[in-house]
Write a structure and sequence with these properties.
Strand content: 25-35%
Oligomer: single chain
Number of helices: 2
Low-confidence stretches: 1-6, 119-129
Mean pLDDT: 88
Distance between the termini: 21 Å
Largest sheet: 5 strands, antiparallel
Number of strands: 29
Length: 439
């Protein structure tokens, strides 16, 4: 699950949930666009991290018990503005993962940020150049709740591109790899980008991570603004595949830009610009027929969320379940910039967690319904009876029912924030950091 890979998970048996939630404000400032859940101080109670802070659980009506600043970076950013927001309103926290990187028993934090835009308060402000776009921060251990010192930073790579990232154990060694793209890694043509994954050296956890190319080079005169990534075993051969806007690269350890291992399926809403993809992508058996389908947003900055039914090996039929206001769907919202697939109600069937990102782009870049009401939803997957091909309903359940909704950022965390066994949600967006406790 994106944002929820704790190396020391708290043992909680999942209980049935009613898909209703209690909203708790952690911070209403724009501090981050991703969130993660873990027990950072090993007190048996889950905590969360977002931006340069981790917030100590338990979480009650007044929020977290304490907050701790663990790294350098920006504090509050402006929520809106003209094109200058590209310099001042882009968070340095696009993805946040909890993982015991060095294996010392304490959960560390992996932070991935934008490779092209650096806030003046972020890394190397004098030159406005970011030396690394992925860094992991070492948990100080027993002193984690009392020390005010910054966690020691270990650079991972200087050119991790893409706005969504996913963890998966690609090589079967029990440690996660990170999906991403790289532009500088293809020295033969600087105007192209490849997609692939980043791998740590388990014998040297403090060393940089290695990028492995999976896809062919794509034309890319732009920067890091690249959408649509995922891992999954689409062909059920026991090997991890890479999902991206253009299709599926099967067995990514062997693919290495071999187009014979590519399922050519359009996993986006249209257009030829490689920026125009969805958000987090998942391979999952949606309809219960024992083959793997794909769930993907059509456009991170547009409308539409779909599931792609695998009707034959490598062949897919698209079924949209979130559309535009002009279409006849139960829900319609734009900017589904983050997405998770998790069994939220304990019925054994995965569900979809997503929502609308408020001001996903700044003004002037033509996002539809830019300032429309942000929303957060669980879409319960109901396999209809009698079973027929594609006979599935995505039943919308609002997560945020307040008058001041917060939407999603660039990553959603799902897990156990309290210990009642019901799945909870954490979001960090331009409207603040919030947890939603399942009931």
């Amino acid at each position: 699950m994106t944002g929820t890979w704790p190396a020391r998970p708290i043992a909680v048996s999942q209980q049935p949930g009613r898909l209703t939630y209690t909203k708790i404000k952690v911070d209403d400032r724009f501090l981050a666009e991703s969130c993660s859940i873990a027990d950072y101080n090993r007190d048996g109670t889950p905590d969360i991290s977002a931006g340069r802070r981790w917030y100590q659980g338990p979480f009650g009506p007044s929020g977290a018990t304490e907050e701790h600043v663990y790294r350098a970076g920006h504090d509050e950013l402006p929520r809106s503005g003209a094109m200058s927001e590209l310099d001042t309103g882009v968070s340095d926290d696009w993805s946040c993962f909890a993982e015991d990187v060095d294996g010392d028993g304490y959960t560390d934090i992996i932070n991935i940020t934008c490779p092209d835009v650096v806030d003046a308060n972020a890394v190397a402000p004098a030159t406005r150049q970011r030396t690394h776009t992925a860094i992991w921060y070492k948990n100080p251990g027993a002193a984690v709740s009392t020390s005010s010192a910054a966690w020691k930073a270990y650079p991972m790579h200087n050119d991790v591109r893409g706005e969504q990232h996913t963890l998966s154990d690609v090589d079967g060694d029990g440690r996660p790899e990170i999906s991403g793209a790289c532009k500088s890694c293809n020295n033969s043509d600087p105007e192209t980008v490849t997609r692939g994954y980043y791998q740590m050296d388990t014998t040297r956890p403090t060393a940089g991570w290695t990028y492995h190319v999976v896809t062919k080079p794509y034309p890319w005169p732009g920067g890091g603004w690249l959408h649509g990534f995922g891992f999954g075993d689409v062909n059920r051969d026991g090997k991890i595949d890479l999902l991206e806007r253009g299709g599926v690269w099967t067995n990514i350890q062997a693919a290495r830009a071999d187009t014979s291992a590519f399922y050519d399926v359009k996993l986006h809403g249209g257009g030829t610009d490689p920026k125009d993809g969805g958000s987090h992508m998942f391979a999952v058996d949606v309809d219960g027929d024992e083959d793997m389908d794909i769930i993907s947003a059509d456009a991170a900055h547009g409308y539409g969320i779909s599931w792609h039914e695998q009707t034959a090996p490598g062949k897919f039929t698209k079924h949209k379940f979130v559309g535009t206001p002009q279409e006849s769907f139960a829900t319609d919202f734009s900017q589904p910039h983050a997405l998770e697939v998790v069994d939220m109600d304990g019925d054994g069937v995965p569900d979809v967690v997503t929502g609308k990102s408020y001001l996903a782009h700044p003004e002037g870049l033509n996002d539809p319904d830019l300032r429309g009401e942000p929303v957060n939803y669980v879409f319960k997957i109901k396999r209809n009876t009698p079973s027929e091909a594609g006979s599935v309903t995505f039943e919308p359940h609002p997560i945020d029912t307040s008058n001041t909704k917060v939407g999603v950022g660039r990553q959603i965390a799902v897990g156990h924030i309290n210990l009642d066994g019901i799945m909870d949600v954490c979001v960090a967006s331009k409207l603040g950091v919030y947890v939603f406790l399942g009931q």
